[in-house]
Amino acid sequence: MNTMKYRDNVKRIFFRALGSFMALSLFFLASCSKEIELDGLPFKKRTLFIYMAANNNLGSAASKNINWMKEAFSQRYYGDNRVVIYWAPNRTPSTPVLVEIKRNGPSARVDTLKVYGSQSAVEPATLQMAIEDMLDFAPADSYALILWSHGTGWMPADLPPGSGYTTVQPQQRAMYGEKIPQTRYFGEEAKKYMELSDLCGALPDHLFQFILFDACFMGQVEVAYALRNKADYLIASPAEVLFDGMPYNKIIQYIFTSTPQLEAICREFFNHYENQFATIGLYDLRQMEPLAEVMSQIIATYKNNIPSIPIAGIQYFDRYQKHTMFDLSNFVEKLMPESDPLWAQFERQMASTILYKDAIPKNTLHIPINTYCGISTYIPIAGYADLNDFYYRTDWYKRVYEEN
Q: What is the pTM of this model?
């Protein structure tokens, strides 16, 4: 069954102080209120925190993204809403800073809130400290989080050498030579990485309204389930994210509306890369436990079918020699007959969990996408025994597979 869904078919607000008594009075009232309204769009006091682990080959992308954020602030007035960034730049030595994007007349600037000593952005304690500092410097009615860096989802930091799980296929190298499209994943610094379990341990429960990964491969059911108590919603890509990442000059406006317009963020990302490559998904994390329950029932019934699944025929989203990121619905479709009532139950739950999805079928990364449910999964087949040992430690495996 083809689950592909193509994309669905505010004006900019520019605040100008006119110098008159009336304009000054309105400005004063707006700045003192937790909610203002401009051209019919309400704004609440919200802090967007961006954790930018950029002490790696994404350094130039970090600078470009910050300039895009400045562009967004120069085009629109956001009241008391704030963008605070923990930025670990690609320098030697790397001196992390906590900065804020602020409107500066008709333009915008970057203000330094705090300068840190030598520390690693992939250490959970650093993330914890950065969140605490953000809360001190920019308290708000609500918070959103963007995790910005490289990423490999649930996959372990210490992958078996030469395993092929993160080695680009030879045909890809033959196709692109040394110009393989640059992409990103989460949490890499000096060949050190932050494990998913460590990331979850560093994030407070229910602080953020939503989490967005500006990183590759984080749109995995294993990741979403691990983050189920960390936010209400998650935006992520099941595949790679191109080097420039999120178009911040276009999406900031949707973050600061009274209710964040998360589908609009996804559409802007997709439209930005529609002539290249993009996959995106919006997940209701409050539905992850019901999804796990349905999957647990399916695995309990059809677990013995997994060894015989024709894995080569399942939709994948990575370019590696050994594919590990598979379309969740396509996996279930191969695992069980659609005549089983569990299939209908699974589809209903997926519709409640995946609120938005989109992918480019024919793309510049030459990953043919023939079916797309919006989220990926790993399949623990016998041929991946070395990787399975790590997979058995994930919350998703323990909940869905181990209990059966």
A: 0.84
